UniProtKB/TrEMBL annotation:
MF (Gene Ontology): ATP binding; RNA ligase (ATP) activity
Catalytic activity entry: ATP + (ribonucleotide)n-3'-hydroxyl + 5'-phospho-(ribonucleotide)m = (ribonucleotide)n+m + AMP + diphosphate
Source species taxonomy: Eukaryota, Metazoa, Chordata, Craniata, Vertebrata
Source species of the chain: Gasterosteus aculeatus aculeatus
UniProt superkingdom: Eukaryota
Name of the protein this chain belongs to: RNA ligase 1
């Protein structure tokens, strides 16, 4: 079973409510969305109790699709309202205790985006214009260009010559361990992945350092939870608090009809990160082929210092913890 691609914001597996108190997840947000103890009726219909539970990763979403005729990595860029429209939207939220019923003008209310921006799959359109979701965002993607500093950490996991990316996945030989491998972008077409690492979301997994940043891609749904708790508010709270495997940002359930649901620790009033996340403590094997860390330029040999070169120097090494990966420069 190939697990779902993440194109839209994933709804919570529980019915949620808005509390007028500072958010634990987002600075400067004066409200937070919390879960009630009732499982979402939509999730029940989708048979979430029989779904595949996977780890929700704390990174930034990416997408592999064709750009200029070739497989290419795209970065997530949600089109968001400008300041004036955002004020009107929040005023509507406060007075109606809901996002429903707010009228948008896509042409006037939203910040500009690059010409290369495309809306995510599944975004509804009206009169040729993409329609914002309930949060007032229009999910979308922009291609990662190597000369764009905003996406330099996305570019760091790519080898433009090999058309490949550095991917972290469960080891084929040891299910408890992970492995870092280069995969052709063509093998990842139409998949979404999470970019994690040193300069993403405060680096909760402890990857790399300021001197030698480490970034990797993880396919969504790749990290299955081996013994997941039932979809029950109290049992999930206990699992997050007490189980070593529960030291994760959240859970994403992949239903058999392709529907996705999630729960974040913040939905349950729990902190994140809490201690050392379980991902950072898993053993990892580096399986990036050696010999690719030099190239010829103008008749001379230039030593490469990108992520592929750094990992190729460690090819065959096994580390007891993902966070222990270190490079000798």
């Amino acid at each position: 079973m190939r697990l779902g691609s993440v194109q839209q914001k994933i709804p919570c597996v529980f019915v949620t409510e808005v509390k007028q108190e500072p958010s634990r997840k987002r600075d400067c947000q004066q409200f937070q969305v919390v879960a009630t103890e009732s499982v979402s009726p939509v999730a029940v219909v989708a048979q979430v109790h029989h779904a595949v539970a996977t780890e929700k990763l704390d990174g930034t979403c990416c997408y592999v699709s064709v750009y200029k005729g070739r497989p290419h990595l795209w970065a997530r860029l949600d089109r968001k309202p400008n300041k004036q429209a955002d004020k009107r939207f929040k005023k509507h939220q406060r007075s109606h205790h809901s996002c429903k019923g707010f009228l948008w003008s896509v042409e006037e209310d939203f910040k500009p985006v690059p010409e290369t921006w495309v809306p995510a799959l599944g975004v509804k359109h009206h009169s040729g214009q993409p329609v914002p979701d309930e949060h007032g965002h229009i999910p979308g993607w922009v291609p990662v260009e190597k000369d764009n500093k905003q996406y330099c950490w996305h570019a760091s996991v790519l080898d433009p010559d090999l058309r490949a990316a550095l991917v972290l996945r469960p080891s084929a030989e040891d299910g408890d361990a992970l492995e870092v491998v280069p995969l052709p972008l063509a093998d990842l077409l139409e998949r979404t992945l999470e970019l994690i690492g040193t300069n993403v979301n405060g680096n909760p997994y402890g990857l790399g350092s300021k001197k030698t940043p480490v970034h990797l891609l993880v396919s969504h749904g790749a990290l299955r939870i081996r013994d997941p708790p039932p979809v029950d508010f109290q049992q999930l709270c206990s699992w997050f608090r007490e189980s070593p495997e529960g030291r994760v940002e959240g859970i994403v359930w992949h239903c058999h009809d392709g529907t996705l649901f999630k729960v974040h620790r913040h939905h349950l009033g729990l902190r994140w990160p809490e201690g050392d996340p379980s991902l950072g403590e898993r053993a990892v094997v580096v399986a990036v082929g050696s010999g690719d860390n030099v190239f010829r330029s103008g008749g001379g040999v230039v030593v490469r210092k990108d992520s592929f070169a750094l990992f190729s120097a460690l090819s065959g090494r096994r580390f007891s913890r993902l966070m222990d990966i270190t490079f000798t420069l």
